[in-house]
UniProtKB/TrEMBL annotation:
Residues 1-215 form the Protein kinase domain. GO terms for cellular component: cytoplasm. Transmembrane segments: none annotated. It comes from Coccomyxa viridis. One of its GO terms (biological process) is intracellular signal transduction. SUPFAM superfamilies: Protein kinase-like (PK-like). This is Protein kinase domain-containing protein. It comes from the Eukaryota. Pfam families: Pkinase (PF00069). The keyword Kinase applies. GO terms for molecular function: ATP binding; protein serine/threonine kinase activity. Keywords: ATP-binding, Kinase, Nucleotide-binding, Serine/threonine-protein kinase, Transferase.
Amino acid sequence: MAHPHVIQFREVLECQGLVGLVMEYAAGGALSALISARCGLPEPAARWFFQQVVIAVDFCHQKGFACQDIKLENVLIVNDARTLVKLCISRCSQGTKLHSPPGSLLRLPPTVAPEILLSAHSGSMYDGQRADMWSLGVLLFTMLTGHYPFSAQKPSSAASTSYVRSLLMGGQLRDLQQCVALGISKQCMDLLTRLLQQDPKARCRMKDVLNHPWFLSDLPPGATSTNKEPKLHISQPPC
């Protein structure tokens, strides 16, 4: 998928029975390193990165896909001068009604939506695009605060995923009011609250984010125009 905010696929290489994918190089590295070093970002900086990621996810949704793996490690900085970022989409899934195979719980990232955790446990279906909206909320919260919106310890620690699942299913999200102490605006808080709704049906949709006052603030003119008539560039195989 060719898009200004999506890391591009280059080619497939095979060597000694192993297959490798060559992707566009992002010289600035992952956004997670920047967030970790600074323990969170000022709200204007977080919004700038969030706007770019949302535009990338919206493009995928318009193409009929759910990203399924939205996290800071997959947001890559490609231009240090203008701090442009691109989303690396590694687990894009077609369609909105999706499910995960039982037993895959331990492989899920800490940005995963509650319904995916439930699906991994019971095999129930979920809406992948609505799940992406939860992940965007976790992404924004983490950019602002430097940590996940849960009481869990390191995502890689023992039984962490099960612990996070119990927190989510029990409705024990960290109180978003802690963001007030960081000086986060009411508009930003409103968007976070709408994104981090455990009930997928109550969660805001992409169109709600794109029209939200906080998202629109300082958005460069024409920033979303690339999604109005997306073009899919298909490379022809060599003869």
